[in-house]
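Notebook p. 47: complex prediction with NDP.
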Amino acid sequence: MNSRRHFLHKLSASLIALPAFSGRELNEIQLLNEKAYEGPVLRVAILGLGSYGTRVADAMKTCTRAKLVGAVSGTPSKIKDWQTKYGIPEKNCYNYENFDQIKNNPDIDAVYIITPNSLHAPFAIRTAKAGKHVICEKPMALNAKEGMTMIAACKAANVKLLVGYRVHFEPKTLEIIRMRNEGELGKVMFFQGLCGFRIGDPSQWRLNKALAGGGSMMDIGIYAINGSRYLVGEEPVWVTAQETKTDPVKFKEGVDETITFQLGFPSGVIASCLSTYSMNNLDRFYLNCEKGWAEMQPSTGYGPIKARTNKGELTHTHVTHQTVQMDEMSDIILGGKQPLVPVDGEEGLKDLKIIDAIFMAVKTGKKESLSL
Ligand code: NDP
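Predicted complex, structure tokens below:
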């Protein structure tokens, strides 16, 4: 990146965090930035225009290397709204029935699947068959077996498969990983991950086993699993887990309310984690090491992420996670970039294998081995 382009890129990123600039000024700088960037742009269609899909679409307005160009929805009125709001042309809009026709559309490179969990695999396979790259929300699928079918479909179609692990690009997270990698914290000894919130409406898909594949673990507990892996820097080899349920009406069979689980890593590191749908203000990671420690709270929310280590507070500028994620994913898909923490299908599959083992450990009451 040349220095002018680098300056403009940095400036536009910092403007996201500086409300002192007017919307017009921001647009002008953004236009300048877009003009300055001359490299490839990933043209994305979002599939599933719900709450998180809208967040991603809004964040993509300030992307440089990715652009929202298409929409796929089961709700015709949303398509109309998105066409107006995001300037999406009619020819790039699909419903779930005619979606496969996207294969004939040369103006779309990738489809970002942001639906309830049970629809990730079927839509990913259709996307791959249409010859488009797949970006899929977490959890990648309902279980490891389904995840493997997605990986195989993308491989067969020679398209990339990425999972929306936005915090893998978050500056404070990356700084702690750098400190660990460079030995500043010493040998890792222990990780604690606390992830949860009190879930509302009992009729929502997140509490429906068929659509969600479980309860809190699939939705929020996965952050503790994933976080333990990228902060410890190893893959776990065993898991133990315990489930508690205070409301069996709201949290039906197969929908977990609270699970505590422990992961063991090859070097002897232990992770102790909590996943829950019945307690608020749980978004905390803690890493204990021989020479120091790191603490993040909030650790995976939309930010700003707060982090400190034994050396003091981390002060990296907040960037909108989904903006950076989509720009980085463009570099990965179009430029073959290797991110520090992977976001590919294999990464998604590892979390699914751990989730499968956690559910098994809850049933058996035994330590389950993991082979990732
Ligand atoms: P929403 O319920 O808000 O949106 C899901 C959308 O999927 C719906 O609006 C609908 O869009 C579409 N859809 C298709 N079939 C169904 C169905 N049977 N029932 C309900 N919706 C359906 O969910 P979220 O946006 O909160 O979550 C979607 C995915 O994103 C999940 O996998 C979740 O885990 C993930 N997520 C990730 C986050 C992150 O930080 N990475 C944060 C939040 C969610 P339409 O009307 O257009 O068809």
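Notes: The longest strand covers residues 188-196. The chain has eleven helices and 15 strands.
Next step: compare against the earlier run before touching the bench.
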